[in-house]
Amino acid sequence: MVACELDGETSAEVLGWRLPPWQALLVHRVLPACGGLVVYLLVMCFDITIVITRFMDGSTGLAVTSLILIVLPALLSLVFTLASPPALLADDGADSTEQTETIDCCWVLTQILNFFVFPVAAISRYMYEIFWWTEAVFASLYQDEARTKQAVALARAPSPLELYLFLQAFVHAAPHAVINIVVLMTDTQMDYDSVSLQAISIVASSLRMASTATVYRRFEREKVCGRKYPWSYSRAIQDNEANEHIENHNKAAEENIYETILPRNRPAPTPYLNGNRKYNSNLIQFSPSVRGDSGAFFDSASETDSDYLVPIPRSQNIISEANSDDDTGRPKSIIDRVAPRRNTEYTIQDVEIMPPPAMPAPRLTLSDWAEKMVENMESIPDWLSAPPRYKTNHYEVVRDEPDIPRRVSRRFVTGLEPQDAAASLVHFLGWHMFFISRLLSISAFIVFHPIAAIVILFSHYQIMLLLLIVPQASTVRRSFYIFLAFVYLFCLMELKVRFRHVRAWHAGWLVAGSAQTLVFTAVWAAVDNPLSAWWRDYVVLVIFCSLLLSYMCLLVYFVLLKPKETIVYIDEGKKFRA
């Protein structure tokens, strides 16, 4: 798969068909941004309407809980953003400390203002991206390179609002969908309008979760191939500075392709006389291509243009200065002046290379083979066999302690190429169906067996948290792991964590999550279920059909449409396809 020429984080193909850059940006950037804006508007509008309806109906507890879930992602985003501010916020012209402090204060006030008006700020972020990606599409269509680069740079500019949009999918949408399903199963006196509002909110929440899982599921592997966090502003500053340094270096290299050749400072050679002419002993050379009257000796260095040029006779020099530097009438290039071609009369016809003498391969006798086997067996660690023996010429040395294993740094890492629009769509549908079955099973199990559901889910959360927490990690990263362990209740993604055996992790979690969904469904449907037979069969059918469709979509994605992995060498910085 090939990355887009204008945006390296997106694919330039769809189902193997190469797209022009403007079509690649339209399919992979503009359309997903428009879809994300529509889903966000659905989630926020219907959830706010549900909160207002519950306040009017007297369900103050549910209304306050829903309102907290709506505000909590913005609050967490503000905390994480202020806890890790950008390293440098001042412009190049802001040299004084007062100007730097002023810019820092403006940045902090901007983040606080975004918290208070987070729905409007998120919508403005979507509109900003849509505008500049559309500008990049039209600029690329009309082949305006400067305008295209500017539009792509502005569209890819990071923002802390992207962190809010990521947190909103699992901190707000997932718990609120569970609450809505629980209310639908327990409240039998709801009218048609309330049921419609909550049903649309559940579907929109699952769409929001599926889109986020599709974008960030393998983020760390894609990060190896050049992808960056969309909310890391300090990282963007460093990348921009690095890009500017590279561009300036390339411009300087383009301007100064040929360096000025200066004559060497060396002592004057001692001339000697040959008849009536004076020759320089350091410049006397023999050339087989010189014939006839031209002679075998050349003039002194004072009669040539540069000390680095091969001396030529005065007559030829005068003719070349009058006409041109060669027979074709073209001036000599700098390469011809520094290292001119020399035409010789000698022709090499046959070269005879003697092969090395043939030596028989050493034979491994039975005793040698047995000795090698013993040495290999002795190389097993100390807790399986005796300490290893090191043979010398006359005696054996037995080590009392085994060698300490040393960690060898890896020269390469495995990355993942960006997925195209068809793969993203199938992946999105698979996660959407999986989340519907997952949310329905968890909510129904909470309704009919609340204590068992709380124990199982809390145990699941604790196991994920124990696997994620690293004592050497920073406080901000460990705080983010607390949230990430909650995400692992619904799906598994590589974000701030890189799995060593990624296929085993994803397959194991998918099997465990599916088994948990099936057990939850079987238990609440068979044990003490007060629902009517029609509603029970309907919910069970929706769960099993959604799970089956999710398996079909994920199977098509992993077998046919999954992007290929790449091996990125750390030392050389080159990418090779695995």
UniProtKB/TrEMBL annotation:
Q: Which UniProt keywords apply?
A: Cell membrane, Membrane, Transmembrane, Transmembrane helix
| Keyword Translocase part of the UniProt annotation | no
Q: Name one GO cellular component term.
A: plasma membrane
Write down the InterPro entries for this protein, in alphabetical order. XK-rel (IPR018629), XK-related_scramblase (IPR050895)
The membrane topology noted for this protein in its Swiss-Prot or TrEMBL record is: Multi-pass membrane protein
Question: Where are its TM segments located?
Answer: 30-50, 62-83, 163-185, 439-458, 478-495, 507-526, 538-560
Q: According to its UniProt record, where is this protein located?
A: Cell membrane; Membrane
One family name in Pfam for this protein: XK-related
Q: Which family does it belong to?
A: Belongs to the XK family.
Indicate what this protein is called per its UniProt record: XK-related protein
What is the species listed in this Swiss-Prot or TrEMBL entry?
Plutella xylostella
